[in-house]
Specification:
Elements (H helix, E strand, L loop, with lengths): L4 E6 L6 H4 L4 E2 L16 H5 L11 E2 L2 H7 L6 E6 L12 H20 L3 E4 L11 H11 L6 E3 L12 H4 L2 H4 L3 E3 L6 E5 L4 E5 L22 E7 L1 E2 L11 E2 L1 H7 L3 E5 L5 E2 L6 E4 L3 H4 L1 E7 L3 E7 L1
Parallel strand pairs: 3-17, 4-5, 5-6, 6-7, 9-10, 10-13, 11-12, 13-15
Antiparallel strand pairs: 1-2, 1-8, 4-16, 8-9, 14-15, 16-17
Helix pairs in contact: 4-5
């Protein structure tokens, strides 16, 4: 595989191309974890089995079997996860211990599945008051990943002035990390994979539509979007914030949408657009592995 070039251009009028070009990074052996997306779901979603397991994507625990499928080097693999909510009870209690254990297992799954990208679809952290000790532990665990790590701030860990993503230097120890920071959206380019990934960060606690006004498809063959919000199945769901409507998904014209904000795994594909919530590994003990060869599919991976 040729040495990949990763480009990030922020879609803001004041952002000059020359300034944006400073974000260009070259990576050897581009591989990564696709962040899984998931956040707290409402009570009725937690107690129903309707969205506990996606209708697409069989559970797989055999890493060698999956890796064999892409042994010819032509495929792309992305680990998609979300909603670990690290720091929900600070440094004490079962919640934090389980979240850190889940993060370690996510990293292990990324290595076992030999993924090309690791994608966190929001709420990696539970809030912007997570203490430095815990943030540094998150960074230290992620150092075992030698592929690009893409992080989308969600509604809990939004990219505000006091965000841990601002207060601490993640790139010092994680040179392959990219954190979405733009409320207007950013487009990441992976030329050697013929892949582009679009994401819009939560930058305030105000309500907004995560997939509205997404740019048209680019020139890359494979187009992915990552978003953190609530899929509206019926009008009853409109009482929630950060609404994602079925037409929002279909109008993206993307090949895959990596979603976060729900605790359980769910397939919410619309039309020809594959879309899924990875669910929180704290709850499901699973991540999603997205496989792209001549076509795109995803599988649940036990961790």
């Amino acid at each position: 595989m040729d040495r990949p070039i990763f480009r990030s251009y922020v879609h803001l009028p004041e952002m000059s191309r020359a300034r944006a070009s400073k974000s260009l990074i070259e990576w050897n052996n581009l591989i990564a974890l696709c962040p899984v997306s998931d956040i707290l779901c409402s009570l009725e979603e937690m107690v129903t089995d309707e969205y506990s397991i996606a209708p697409r994507g069989a559970l797989r625990t055999d890493a060698a079997q999956f890796a064999e499928r892409y042994a010819n080097g032509k495929g792309i693999r992305i680990l998609h996860t979300s909603d670990l909510h690290i720091g929900s009870d600070y440094s004490h209690g079962e919640g934090s211990r389980r979240a850190f254990d889940a993060l370690e297992r996510v990293v292990g799954a990324a290595q076992d599945a030999q993924v090309d990208i690791v994608l966190f679809a929001g709420d990696l952290l539970d809030n912007n008051r997570v203490p430095e000790q815990q943030v540094m532990r998150v960074i230290d665990i992620m150092r075992d990943v030698d592929v690009p790590l893409i992080i989308l701030p969600g509604n809990h860990d939004c990219y505000t002035s006091d965000s841990p993503y601002r207060r601490f230097d993640w790139t010092d120890k994680l040179p392959l990390v990219h954190i979405f920071t733009s409320a207007a959206g950013e487009l990441l380019h992976f030329p050697s994979l013929d892949l582009a990934i679009w994401g819009r960060a939560h930058t305030t606690y105000e309500d907004f539509s995560p997939l509205r006004a997404i740019p048209e498809r680019g020139t890359e063959r494979w187009q992915i979007a990552v978003a953190h919000g609530h899929f509206a199945r019926t009008d009853y769901d409109l009482r929630h914030s950060y609404i994602i409507r079925p037409e929002d998904i279909e109008e993206t014209r993307r090949d895959y949408i990596a979603l976060g904000h729900w605790e359980n795994n769910a397939d919410v594909s619309v039309g020809g657009v594959t879309a899924a919530y990875s669910g929180s590994p704290n709850r499901t003990d699973r991540v999603l592995i997205v496989g792209i060869d001549d076509e795109l599919s995803y599988e649940q991976w036990a961790i």
